[in-house]
Amino acid sequence: MGDDSEWLKLPVDQKCEHKLWKARLSGYEEALKIFQKIKDEKSPEWSKYLGLIKKFVTDSNAVVQLKGLEAALVYVENAHVAGKTTGEVVSGVVSKVFNQPKAKAKELGIEICLMYIEIEKGEAVQEELLKGLDNKNPKIIVACVETLRKALSEFGSKIILLKPIIKVLPKLFESRDKAVRDEAKLIAIEIYRWIRDALRHPLQNINSVQLKELEEEWVKLPTGAPKPSRFLRSQQELEAKLEQQQSAGGDAEGGGDDGDEVPQIDAYELLEAVEILSKLPKDFYDKIEAKKWQERKEALEAVEMLVKNPKLEAGDYADLVKALKKVVGKDTNVMLVALAAKCLTGLAVGLRKKFGQYAGHVVPTILEKFKEKKPQVVQALQEAIDAIFLTTTLQNISEDVLAVMDNKNPTIKQQTSLFIARSFRHCTASTLPKSLLKPFCAALLKHINDSAPEVRDAAFEALGTALKVVGEKAVNPFLADVDKLKLDKIKECSEKVELVHGKKAGLAAEKKESKPVPGRAAALGAAGDKDTKDVSAPKPGPLKKAPTTKSGGPPKKGKTTAPGGSASAGTKNKKGLETKEIVEPELSIEVCEEKASAVLPPTCIQLLDSSNWKERLACMEEFQKAVELMERTEMPCQALVRMLAKKPGWKETNFQVMQMKLHIVALIAQKGNFSKTSAQIVLDGLVDKIGDVKCGNNAKEAMTAIAEACMLPWTAEQVMSMAFSQKNPKNQSETLNWLSNAIKEFGFSGLNVKAFISNVKTALAATNPAVRTSAITLLGVMYLYVGPSLRMFFEDEKPALLSQIDAEFEKMQGQSPPAPTRGISKHSTIGTDEGEEGDEPDDGNNDVVDLLPRIEISDKITSELVSKIGDKNWKIRKEGLDEVAGIINEAKFIQPNIGELPTALKGRLNDSNKILVQQTLNILQQLAVAMGPNIKQHVKNLGIPIITVLGDSKNNVRAAALATVNAWAEQTGMKEWLEGEDLSEELKKENPFLRQELLGWLAEKLPTLRSTPTDLILCVPHLYSCLEDRNGDVRKKAQDALPFFMMHLGYEKMAKATGKLKPTSKDQVLAMLEKAKANMPSKPAAPAKAMSKPMGGSVPAKYQPTPVPVEDSVSSNIEAKPDLKKTKAPGVSSKAKSAQGKKVPSKTTLKEDEDKSGPVFIVVPNGKEQRMKDEKGLKVLKWNFTTPRDEYIEQLKTQMSSCVAKWLQDEMFHSDFQHHNKALAVMVDHLESEKEGVIGCLDLILKWLTLRFFDTNTSVLMKALEYLKLLFTLLSEEEYHLTENEASSFIPYLILKVGEPKDVIRKDVRAILNRMCLVHPASKMFPFIMEGTKSKNSKQRAECLEELGCLVESYGMNVCQPTPGKALKEIAIHIGDRDNAVRNAALNTIVTVYNVHGDQVFKLIGNLSEKDMSMLEERIRRSAKRPSTAPVKQAEEKPQRTQNINSNANMLRKGPAEDMSSKLNQARSMSGHPEAAQMVRREFQLDLDEIENDNGTVRCEMPELVQHKLDDIFEPVLIPEPKIRAVSPHFDDMHSNTASTINFIISQVASGDINTSIQALTQIDEVLRQEDKAEAMSGHIDQFLIATFMQLRLIYSTHMADEKLDKDEIIKLYSCIIGNMISLFQIESLAREASTGVLKDLMHGLITLMLDSRIEDLEEGQQVIRSVNLLVVKVLEKSDQTNILSALLVLLQDSLLATASSPKFSELVMKCLWRMVRLLPDTINSINLDRILLDIHIFMKVFPKEKLKQCKSEFPIRTLKTLLHTLCKLKGPKILDHLTMIDNKNESELEAHLCRMMKHSMEQTGSKCEKETEKGASRIDEKSSKAKVNDFLAEIFKKIGSKENTKEGLAELYEYKKKYSDADIEPFLKNSSQFFQSYVERGLRVIEMEREGKGRIPTSTGISPQMEVTCVPTPTSTVSSLGNTNGEEVGPSVYLERLKILRQRCGLDNTKQEDRPPLTSLLSKPAIPPVASSTDMLHSKLSQLRESREQHQHSDLDSNQTHSAGTMTSSSSTANIDDLKKRLERIKSSRK
Question: What pLDDT shows up at residue 1811?
Fold first, then answer.
């Protein structure tokens, strides 16, 4: 019992932890009692048990556990600190309580969970419960679901987040356990209670039976809104109050509140966003442009399927929207228009507000498309535009909509009005302010008078809706002129309208919005409450101001009233002040006299034109009296002023009479209904008298009266134009003075600034100083109203004048414009009216700004300009930006439509050239001023990117960005900036500069806002993470901004947002919030008004200093460089902190289940190419640094976001190294399965790995190196070659690691470098490693030197870059290094070179110090004593290697050949010893080495080397034999490792042993001829062609020179090669794989072969050359047309440059080019013209015209011209769009040449003359009219086509061409076959040679005359050669007949031939029994080839004897054939 008493003595808390269950039981019981006794929730006693509560609930003894649960429940309920235990206790409850069999335990567990929720820990509890759903034990799952259900039922959907629950519901319904399914059903019913139908979509895919059961249950639920029955602690006091109110019978306002809570959940919010951009079909953008509508339809249907997803992930949809917009706007097929409209609807619905930025682009297109009549199209368009409207605001699209209202098409007008009506329904009184209503009503009023009834009805409906939404009071001013009938119709429509927000909205408006709440509540629906709150909040301000206006009010209000002039005009009307717009016809003088005599005394009328001035004066006095007594209605104003103007009228000479006259005019204007017609009668006279000293004042008075009657704007315009059409300077200056005063009296509203400015400019240029002074004074007055923007119009005035203007403006600075005293009518209504409208001050400002003349500049923003701005060359980009600045400067004020400019400028904001970034910012500042408030619509696409620039590392760039943002904000106000997530996304970026600048800016701007921006709350989490940022400045700025955030959001909201922080962070942030609460400024009410009021007037002055604070904020954060590493992480860590505290981990785990299933690397088509382009074009930073700076990491992050799974990216950029390890593990796992993805983002992966090299953690480094080894093994298996970009951004950093102190790491790095040589040519690796030898780290130097030695050992001297000499000199420097290891490495490397290269090393390394030299010699001696590891190899290699130096130099010169050597190198293993070769690959790689060396022999024929070669040549012959035998089993079974087998065979093609090569070729031929197997060659084509042309070089240089070799062997080898190639080039898919470089070398090889005179001398040489001829044609026709054309151009350039090259060579290349030109009409569409034009550009750069003309032959220039002419002819002016790849077009004459051609062709088409080819001809002699010429030529061609008269025809044609040298025979040749064309050309050439006496070229020159027929087509075409000459049809029988004759001549039996397939099929699929062996097959094939060639020869003979006389040797044809047959037999027997 001793034990018992032991524990009895222990204190309670220790008992609770005791190992004895009894002790624990006792402890729990006592604890329970203690807990119940403690009254103070903050008692320190609670803290003792803080760590024990988890043990209470997880006790292993069931009985004890029950007691523990009870105690825990009491603890949670009463303890202040209980919240801290939430996570661990709830997870304990889930895992250890919910699985208990006792119901009591489960109940207590649930109670504890609910209690935690009550103490405000709902989120943490929910987290743990959701985790519990993943438990394997169904009991636990059931209990968790039950707890969630109870929590929801008691606390309601506001506390329990439904989204995560709904997400797991479907999974629960699929559970095997019935209890889980039942529980799922119950919770689904509970959720339905709260959110109703929003639940249907997420559950649509569950089992139909379950769904049916649910539906039945749902129907039974009561319809009333549910209310929570239990409240959080913070809500309980509130609840108590509510209950008291209700018990006292108070109004159930609380109920109303709760009612409002429920619809808060939007089904959209519950959905998972789907990413669709990557799922678009790869060819979508091609298909959508396709000519066939079916293809376009397919593309659209694919999009339609994708956009059916109800919620889409945000992304860059600009291209997709552009494509769809194009279909809607331009597609002729209406079905597709409707389909595209549906797609847009889907996008808008799925993206919601995120689609807003594209709305402006699409709306005008859709509205204009309403011209379509088809109902389904109209319906689709309506749905689209309605969906789009919900994503934006009416304000944003108002410009576009109003622009379409003036369209002539009635359907467009009707549909636009209907759209406006539907849009209004979504608005509320507050989201439809007067400024919007005014232009819409004006446009709609035009429509109600339209001739089309449907347009009128639609307009009535729209106006009715507006009336309903904002109430009559707001709309009536605009409806003043509408007659009663129409007004009734509008009201009738208004009654029918159903608003989206119910009646509330209308009601609110009617109540004059005395309480903005109802309006706000009403707006909660789709229009988005953003707009509502923003506008409704400030309403009370203006209301209070209303009374002051009546009494004239302070200037502040006056300002607002003035611009509201148009409104005031409206109100005058209401009071019946008809003078406003009195229209009266012009009356004749008779009628006027009649009317005047009725009201004036008769004497008065008689004396008007008396000659006595006194009588006239008396008459005037009477006139005045009569006018004074007249009633307004009776006064015939026009008649009276006509009387006054009657002779002498305004020419009155007596000043007294004149003064009276002018006074009477003023009286009439004041007292009568004075019309503009009357005004026009007198104004001219008034202006004439205004300068008069005596009458001037009276004239001004009269003008003022008229201005009051007819509105100042109109009067002023008339007066100004009259004054400036006169010459009198006095009149001009006085008019200007009058206008200055009038503006002050009337206000500025409605004045036409444009008209004034031109007159003022005239005045400023006047010679008279008084006029100039008056003009400057007028400008001063205007400045008061217009503000500083006025100055822009006068910037180009002379400096002296400008300084006067500035001085005047200076005087006005700070003054506010006076309140208007006239023109606002005497009726008091206006006061109340203005007040009620609460005219927002901005409104006034906008009115003035709208008066400024705006110019449309979109037409100047051409695509050329945009492409200039995006050019690769920064100078051109700068030019583009300069042009834009010029355009904006010139225009001064511009319209908001600026075309493609925003996207272009946006791209420049992240330009790598900071000067351009600054220039762009300056342009954007200009743009803001020029566009004014309309710049609002560009905030999202241009404004936010400016904010991104605030994160730039350069001080001055940030300052410029801040100034720009301020300039924009000045125009737009803050609302646009704070809407949506954009700003919060910027703040989220972990860039310290960006954060501090942005927070500083917000701190400055937020205090001035009167209304709370709704989305401001989104910034709060990031603000909190800034409060804990590593960077002190960021923290300070965040603290400064805190009070201003709180000012708008309130303390409660801000404190609630801390709930997601970690506990430690939360406490800190709450403390700061408390502090900020004390300093919180009060929200500005009136002051805000004052702030925003004077924007048009004096405020800009206030705003100008804003850029100043930049300096302070900037100066403090210039951080020292070493901090870079630190700054990398600030964001990362703070992000983790702020990322919702404990909630984060579980969220991610939840996500991981689904997310991690997808691919980790997403394949983005052309993503890598685009990134390379961007880097090349300096759009992004080049990956080049000593330590990685923040911007590099950010950049990589953004680039990765599109192609790396989000969750993996989070791991990769985490601040914790363990996450990096995780990421690497994932990458290793996915390496094999996602090869394509890995290769697609290889550049990014390698860049990320370079960042890991800078980490200090060894485990990450090891893991990274491990991954790299696997990666490069995979890449070499995939035969991938690193791009230059990938290599240069990775290798230098890898080499840094070669100097690591740890041995293991160095070893790994070396292993990786070895493997890299398989994917990147060793010669390109060499410079990088060489650079590594310059490091300060001696280990690195030593390792790099060793690596260089290995490279030289394995690959020979040609890896040494730039030249072996330079490289070795650099290596030799290190012999004198301080470090022993480095010295040794340098010595060893040079010894290696010595072993390969012999004594020549000493020449290459140059002079060494004596000491170094002796060390080297010593080392060489020592190495010589050692037995060499591979003597055979070295013996072979030594002689060859020396030659390689030259060969390498040659390769460099040749360009694309470099490509070839790299392709060969790719497959090299690092090991230099054959013994190491275990796999097939390595064996053949050694072979390749030899070949490359053999290729060396071609270049430099030193006699000794040739000797060596002769000795060696038999050695390799012995080696291949066993190899072939050893591997041959593989070949029969092509499937075992096909790729490596093919590699091996290909390597043998280039073998030095002829038999080996023939055998390999035979096997490849076998593969190529079987269609099913030919595919296996795909991917190996370049490799095969390289091996082939290397073999050709080998034959040319070595075998042909070898006396001992039997030449028949060589012919046999040639036959095999050519046969093989022909097979290959008949399979188009394979032929197209050949790359440019390889094709160039192949053509080089083939043409060299044709020109080889040694072959011609052999018996079968002719045969070989013919077949080469045939092969060349195949290559030209079947290869990828871009590649072959490019290859030929480069080859021609090289051959013309090379002095050694024969002129014949170039000529043959040109013939090939001619052939290509003829093929162009058919192939033009498949050619990449940009690339070809780049090649031509380079050609013309190397060979300008002058240089070409100096060539011996005229062919090159003609060839070039023909090619360009053909391209121009085929493409037309579009050809000029294809110069995109050329950086600097001025380097060659290409562009000019093309322009000339285009011009030429335009002129030709213009004059309708025939299109001539460029070959020189202009027009045939005019004397022979065209018809005759055509007949004559037709006759000639008929002769050529007939068999008998061929020669005669050719002769005639030759004569004709000679006579008319510029004749065009092209049309006649065009319709004939290729063969016929070349036949005619050849014939003409032969005649020319005969006539000119040149004779034939002797064969010995090395070119066979067959080559004249380079362009011989395939043999089959011989047959058809002469058909269809000039439109005559020739039947097949004719051909058969000819064929028979040919066969007989050739000694072939006709009967046998009949059974044979046609020759073409012989070539592609030889009809041979399958049993034959591979060699037999090859030979039978060769024999067929031969036969076909012979036929070919004989057809030649027949068709052109003169020619064949030259080509054939004297032996007769039959003899020749027999001879060939014998030889074939011999070959066969020798093979056997």
Answer: 42
Structure tokens at 1950: 């006709």
Calculate mean pLDDT across residues 1771-1792. Answer: 80
- pLDDT score of 265: 61
Distance set, CA 280 to CA 123, 301, 303, 669, 1163 (Å) = 38, 11, 7, 71, 12
Q: Count CB-CB contacts under 10 A for residue 62.
A: 12
Residue 674 and residue 637 in contact, taking contact as beta carbons nearer than 8 Å: yes
Contact 413, 371 (CB under 8 A): no
Q: Find all residues with CB under 8 Å of 1317, minimum gap 6, and list them.
A: 1325, 1351, 1354, 1355, 1465, 1468, 1469, 1470
Place of tokens 């290596």: 1371
CB–CB of 389/349 below 8 Å?
Answer: no
Select the highest-mean-pLDDT range: 1004-1013, 1439-1448, 1476-1485, 1813-1822: 1004-1013
Tell me the one-letter amino acid at 1122. Answer: P
Q: Which two tokens stand for residue 727?
A: 């010459």
- How far is the C-alpha of 485 from the C-alpha of 460, rounded, in Å? 12
Tokens of 1745: 């015209």
Across 548-557, average pLDDT = 38
- Alpha-carbon gap, residue 832 to 571, rounded angstroms: 11
Q: What b/e sequence results for 1441-1470 when a residue is b if at least 16 CB atoms lie within 10 Å of its CB, and e otherwise? A: bbbbbebbbbbbebebbbbbbbbbbbbbbb
Could you tell me the pLDDT band of residue 1123, with boundaries at 50, 70 and 90? very low
Cα 300-305-310 angle, rounded to 5 deg: 125
Angle subtended by helix axes 453-470 and 410-426, to nearest 10: 10
Q: How many residues does the chain have?
A: 2032
1594-1635 pLDDT per residue, tens: 888 777 777 677 777 788 888 888 888 888 888 888 888 888
Residue with tokens 């939360």: 1066
| DSSP per residue, 1538-1565 | HHHHHHHHHHHHT-SSHHHHHHHHHHHH
Q: Which of 699, 645, 706, 714 is nearest to 673 (CA)?
A: 706
What is the average pLDDT across 448-460? Answer: 87
Please give the residue that has the higher pLDDT: either 1559 or 1158: 1559
Q: Is the pLDDT of residue 44 over 50?
A: yes
**Which pLDDT score, from 0 to 100, does residue 559 have?**
37
Distance CA 131, CA 144 (A): 9
Amino acid letter at 431? T
The per-residue pLDDT for range 1952-2004, each reduced to its tens digit, is 444 444 444 444 444 444 444 444 554 555 555 555 555 555 544 444 444 44
Residues 1370, 1332 contacting (CB under 8 angstroms): no
Q: What is the dihedral of CA 1644, 1650, 1652, 1656, to 10 degrees?
A: 170
Tell me the three state secondary structure of residue 855. Answer: strand
Report the C-alpha gap between 630 and 1271 in whole angstroms: 103
User: Radius of gyration (Cα) for the chain, nearest Å?
Assistant: 46
What local confidence, expressed as pLDDT, does residue 143 receive? Answer: 92
- For residue 472, how many C-alpha atoms fall within 13 Å in the half-sphere facing its CB? 8
The phi and psi torsions of 1814 (rounded to 5 degrees) equal -70, -5
Tokens matching residue 1892: 């000119």
Question: Token pair for residue 536?
Answer: 């409704």
Cis peptide before 648 (omega within 30 of 0): yes
Tokens found for residue 1363: 């030249």
Side-chain half-sphere of 1210: how many Cα atoms within 13 Å?
Answer: 14
Amino acid at 640: L
Closest among 1807, 1814, 1806, 1710 to 1770, alpha carbons compared:
1814
CA dihedral 1019, 1024, 1030, 1034 (to 10 degrees): 50
How far apart CA 1375 and CA 1386 sit, in angstroms, is 6
Quote the CA–CA distance of 22 and 14 in Å, as a whole number: 13
Contacts of 94 (CB under 8 A, 6+ apart): 109, 128, 129, 131, 132, 135, 140, 143, 144
